[in-house]
Design brief:
By secondary structure, the chain is α/β, with parallel strands linked by helices. Helices cover 35% and strands 13% of the residues.
């Protein structure tokens, strides 16, 4: 197999690791000239870049029940050698086809051996080839503390896939993996290294951000379970992003007959996660159904407001920043605009809010304007 065929195989394979760096929402497309698969990915700073996603190897000794690359499956596989992969990345970068790399791998000869191969590829890129592009490196299950630190010195982002929310759910997806010591503990090490070691030897003189990923619905877990662990990771261990990948069955795997999980459930988890991470909500405040899942008919902010603000709307001229952030249709920029505008005059109608960027269609029912509710516009025609 030549390098182009290998690149197509291993980069296409990596796209099955849905969710990382916004790749589910981004367009995955073959380059018009080379046939390689890249993604338009959103970086931690909000910018969008062309990111090559690739496995270092699609061989894997693990037999995860949902994974198309499980060891018991008879499929075409291949492996990059570290120097070979680094040279390919540099060539693609110099050709203007990519601006960054997401590098993961199947587990071969254990997590420690595989992590050494990932580190070797990154070291060649950074130190031998002076590669200065974005680099997201996976940390393998069972990687050692020193390997986690070495990976962090080379990357812009590191990630460890928890897959399930706790040790009780993981066996339904990955019976060979151990939740606490192989997956959760390395995530805690990432945060400990940030706090205990100076970043002077790290890439760009700062430690990388960290993320994790869950397979939603594959293990019968509830949304409460997922959001409890992500809240802990955000607040105690500095997690930057949690990615939620709705379970999709693959042929010739033990879970091939498992029903696919609706993408709307994935969307609701992302929305709830943002409320916890950026809007001051806690998991305990969110609204769940009897199955302990987020309601699909409303986004989590709307569901909370319907229960908590419908009968007790906020006075927009006196509400705090934290209170305003909880109103549907008002984001951080809208809050800042309201706080600035009300220094100069009293906000008395929705048109004032609309002019400063508030989504008044969503926010209007939950606000008082100088002591009065905004008049409602009756709908003349029913909507689907």
């Amino acid at each position: 197999m030549d390098n182009l065929q290998k690149l197509k195989l291993l980069s296409s394979a990596s796209l099955l690791e849905a969710g990382e760096d916004g790749c589910r929402q981004a367009a995955a497309h073959p380059d018009a000239h080379k046939g390689i698969v890249v993604t338009d990915a959103r970086l931690p700073n909000g910018k969008v870049t062309r990111l090559l996603k690739s496995l270092l190897s699609s061989y894997c000794e693990n037999n995860c029940l949902y994974c198309p690359f499980r060891s018991a499956r008879d499929i075409r596989r291949d492996t990059w050698q570290p120097e070979e992969f680094a040279r390919m990345v540099l060539n693609l970068t110099n050709a203007g086809l990519i601006q960054g790399v997401f590098l993961s791998s199947g587990v071969v000869n254990g997590g420690v051996f595989t992590q050494d191969k990932l580190i070797a590829a990154a070291e060649i890129l950074r130190h031998k080839m002076d590669y200065r592009g974005y680099l997201h490196l996976k940390i393998m299950p069972g990687a050692e503390f020193d390997q986690v630190a070495a990976t962090m010195r080379l990357a812009d982002r590191v990630s460890i896939n928890l897959e399930a929310p706790n040790e009780h759910r993981l066996p339904a997806l990955a019976p060979q993996k151990r939740f606490n010591d192989q997956l959760f503990t390395p995530l805690k090490w990432v945060d400990a290294i940030r706090h205990q070691q100076f970043p002077t030897k790290a890439w760009k003189g700062r430690w990388p951000s960290s993320s994790t990923q869950f397979v939603v619905g594959g293990a019968g877990e509830s949304d409460i379970e997922l959001l409890e662990i992500t809240q802990t990771l955000h607040r105690l261990y500095g997690l930057r992003r949690a990615y939620y990948s709705a379970f999709k069955p693959h042929y010739d795997t033990p879970l091939e007959s498992h029903a696919p999980v609706p993408l709307k459930r994935e969307l609701r988890l992302y929305q709830a996660d943002y409320l916890i991470r950026d809007y001051g909500f806690s998991r305990e405040e969110l609204i769940f159904d009897r199955q302990e899942n987020l309601p699909l008919e409303y986004d989590p902010k709307e569901a909370w407001a319907r229960q908590c603000l419908s009968d007790h709307p906020l006075e927009v001229n006196r509400a705090s920043r934290e209170e305003l952030l909880r109103v549907p249709g008002i984001g951080p920029k809208g809050v800042q605009a309201i706080l600035k505008a009300r220094r100069w005059h009293t906000l008395r109608d929705l048109s004032c809010l609309a002019r400063i960027g508030v989504n008044t269609r969503r926010a209007g029912d939950y606000l008082l304007l100088d002591g009065s509710r905004a008049p409602r516009q009756l709908c003349l025609f029913p909507m689907d």
